Automatic annotation (TrEMBL):
Residues 8-205 form the LarA-like N-terminal domain. InterPro entries: LarA-like, LarA-like_C, LarA-like_N, LarA_C, Ni_dep_LarA. It comes from the Bacteria. This is Nickel-dependent lactate racemase. Residues 282-420 form the Lactate racemase C-terminal domain. One of its GO terms (molecular function) is lactate racemase activity.
């Protein structure tokens, strides 16, 4: 027997498993963190990929907007590196009053003042104006035409009207955009609702009951219609610079990439593949996955990423155990409403008529429940968990006991303690 633990909110859940039942433990490569974050930031700002140094791009007197991730991406630890971007700008003659920070909420809820302080850091918050993006108010958006995919392009006015735009964020696998970071700071980050809806609708094939486009998935860039649309829109806007962080499974910075929003980001994607893409030779009967604790398990909406990654590790109709505290519930008021539809086809028809991101997350949740027996350990009411098509459990011990009952006589188990990040490579998801 061996003891394991899985992150759950700000705590951990223990579990003892017989070693003979373990097929795989999917752990990212253990890479040492950067010793001096400030020095590394200054280095990549001065020696970027695909652009001149930032000092040759930004000029005194220009109005600069820095786009940062919201509270659901607190794991990026923007506050730890944003101060060095501000310092760099100050050193080349840019005054604080010419800099503003825009939180890329997409369709997420607004930030509280305390959350803004958490995101950017106490010192930056006290010096620089910080704003939330609002995708719902047309008067705050500029229309820039349509993409070749037919997406109407509405972007936050502060971004469009700025002299210079700097993107920040963190890179990780993303369940339908291929990877997070990069141009996602623009779409969905600071885009209008209509833009976000049309772009996300590209994850489905056209037509009725045609299902998901399999190319709109984790680790997919070229041929992924959603990602290609995002890139095209971002290129139309042409942000001036990007700085994205790459973090290890402990939340420590191991690298930064900077420069052209696409070229630098692609280098970061290669780092993520190497770090978090875990080759597997065999699929499991039972998969146990943690979203990785707070804030990655802040709500079920964010946990869908973990669920999707975990699908790649299990056999058809295998058992999937997910630990996710869901401190803020489902993550969107409308999430549960999508389960009024009796099947995936009904959900798909409704989404194609009126696409919403929470609706899509609900679809992916129902999708997992159709092809896996999914057991959820969370703070959600049992009635809600059952309505989602999942089996509720109060502990890992209870969940594993249920999983054994649902499986073959000698099930093999794969463990994914960092399920929001790690992607099994070599298996095909349903």
């Amino acid at each position: 027997m061996n003891n394991y633990s899985f992150k759950y909110g700000t705590t951990e859940l223990p579990l003892t498993i017989h070693d003979g039942d373990i097929l795989d433990m999917l752990i990212p490569k253990d890479i040492s963190p950067i010793g001096d974050i400030g020095q590394k930031c200054m280095e990549v700002l001065a020696h970027p990929i695909g652009t001149p140094p930032l000092k040759d791009i930004v000029h005194r007197g220009e109005k600069i907007v820095i786009i940062v991730s919201d509270i659901t991406r607190l794991w990026i630890r923007t506050d730890q590196f944003l101060i060095y971007i501000i310092q760099y700008l100050n050193d080349i003659g840019i005054h604080d009053e010419d800099i503003s920070i825009l939180i890329s909420l997409g369709t997420h809820r607004p930030s509280s003042e305390e959350e803004k302080r958490q995101i950017v850091g106490k010192e930056v918050f006290s010096r620089i104006s910080v704003y939330d993006h609002d995708c719902f108010h047309g008067q705050e958006l500029c229309f820039l035409g349509h993409s070749s995919f037919g997406t109407p392009i509405y972007i936050n006015k502060r971004v469009v009207e700025a002299d210079r735009v700097i993107l920040t964020g963190g890179i990780t696998f993303h369940l339908f955009a291929g990877f997070g970071g990069g141009a996602k700071s623009i779409v969905p980050g600071v885009a209008g609702l209509e833009t976000i809806q049309h772009n996300h609708r590209l994850t489905f094939y056209k037509g009725e009951s045609t299902g998901l486009n399999p190319n709109a998935c984790s680790n997919s860039i070229h041929g992924n219609p959603m990602r290609e649309d995002i890139t095209e829109i971002c290129r139309k806007l042409q942000p001036d610079f990007l700085l994205n962080a790459v973090l290890n499974q402990h939340g420590d910075f191991i690298n930064f990439v900077a420069g052209d929003f696409e070229q630098a980001w692609l280098k970061g994607c290669d780092m993520i593949r190497d770090l978090y893409g875990i080759p597997i030779n065999e699929k499991a009967d039972i998969v146990i996955a943690s979203a990785g604790g707070y804030p990655k398990d802040i709500n079920l909406y964010q946990t869908v990423k973990t669920i999707d990654n975990s699908l790649y590790a299990g056999k058809d109709n295998s058992v999937l155990i997910i630990t996710s505290e869901c401190k803020e519930g489902l993550g969107a008021e409308e999430f549960l409403q999508w389960f009024q539809y009796r099947d995936l086809e009904g959900m798909e028809r409704a989404l194609k008529q009126n696409f919403t991101v929470p609706g899509y997350a609900a679809y992916k949740t129902a999708y997992a429940a159709r092809f896996r027996k999914l057991i959820l350990i969370s703070s959600l009411p049992e009635s809600t968990v059952c309505r989602l098509g999942f089996i509720p459990a109060s502990s890992l011990e209870e969940a594993l006991a249920i999983a054994y009952q649902q499986s073959s006589s000698h099930p093999k188990i794969t463990l994914m303690p960092y399920g929001a990040n790690t992607l099994p490579i070599g298996a095909i998801s349903m």
